[in-house]
Amino acid sequence: MRTGILLDEIGVPFGDVVAQAKEAARLGYDAIWLAQRGGWDALTALVALSAAAPGLALGTSVIPTYPRHPISLAAQALTLQAATGAPVSLGVGLSHRPIIEDQYGYSFARPVRHLREYLQALYPLLHHGKADVHGETLTAAGTVEAPGAEPPSVIVGAMSPLSLKVSGAYSDGVVSTWAGPRSLAEYIVPTLTKAATEAGRAAPRVVTGQLISVTGNPDGPRTWVAEHYGMAANIPAYQAIFTRDRVDGPGGTVIAGDEEVVRARIRELEEAGATELILMPVGTPEEQARTRELFAS
């Protein structure tokens, strides 16, 4: 299973993010990923990071759709690919109502329809340089001229049944966080694959982001994640995932233990249908270093 690493960018000086990218290249990771969480701009940053650590695939996990019109996002993503020459995974997602409505001031009404219309515009823009979508939630009628740029792969941060169906029909796959082997095998992979098959698309990518700690004290990182990401338990789509996987919120999703335990859990994810892993190390600095070393090629 191909393995990339999510770089830590929240409240981190950009030089430190560059150092993380260089370490990922040194350790032999396949890809580096950046989130879009109100700090550094992911697509802009990846141009500089690719120059500092060439040879790595690049990914975003994920860019909220509402604040970025699909014509603008397509131009940014194609520019990134052309500037770096690297394979690009353009991860996009709806985000959540409190962010979209309270921070950006957009309406979050009919989010699945918005996602469908967004992808109906974005995919043709990336592959054919034009879109003509006049929907209920957006209009995208225009072109992007980027000769020579290879179309990025589009993956969606999707969890709900309807968003998974839309992702299967109009994108190259999904990127999931919090989902464990049971949710992947019994829900995400079958729903996504069925939608892709019905739409005549290739087998979808299933990128799984996992909080992982190689540690002798599994309760430490699990407690930290529960304290810092506990609000995720209040989001309905995530609640459903936690219930399916029979875990008590975000802390229960952390893969923690010695090297043998961690390797076994990753095998379970692969057997459940995950095609790629995004490593998100957690724990003390020493535990995170140990985790990064475990997944070095």
From TrEMBL:
<comment type="similarity">
    <text>Belongs to the Bcl-2 family.</text>
</comment>
<keyword id="KW-0560">Oxidoreductase</keyword>
<feature type="domain" description="Luciferase-like">
    <location>
        <begin position="13"/>
        <end position="275"/>
    </location>
</feature>
<dbReference type="Pfam" id="PF00296">
    <property type="entry name" value="Bac_luciferase"/>
</dbReference>
<dbReference type="InterPro" id="IPR011251">
    <property type="entry name" value="Luciferase-like_dom"/>
</dbReference>
<dbReference type="GO" id="GO:0016705">
    <property type="term" value="F:oxidoreductase activity, acting on paired donors, with incorporation or reduction of molecular oxygen"/>
</dbReference>
<protein>
    <submittedName>
        <fullName>LLM class F420-dependent oxidoreductase</fullName>
    </submittedName>
</protein>
<dbReference type="InterPro" id="IPR036661">
    <property type="entry name" value="Luciferase-like_sf"/>
</dbReference>
<dbReference type="InterPro" id="IPR019910">
    <property type="entry name" value="Lucif-like_OxRdtase_MSMEG_4879"/>
</dbReference>
<dbReference type="InterPro" id="IPR020726">
    <property type="entry name" value="Bcl2_BH2_motif_CS"/>
</dbReference>
<dbReference type="InterPro" id="IPR050564">
    <property type="entry name" value="F420-G6PD/mer"/>
</dbReference>
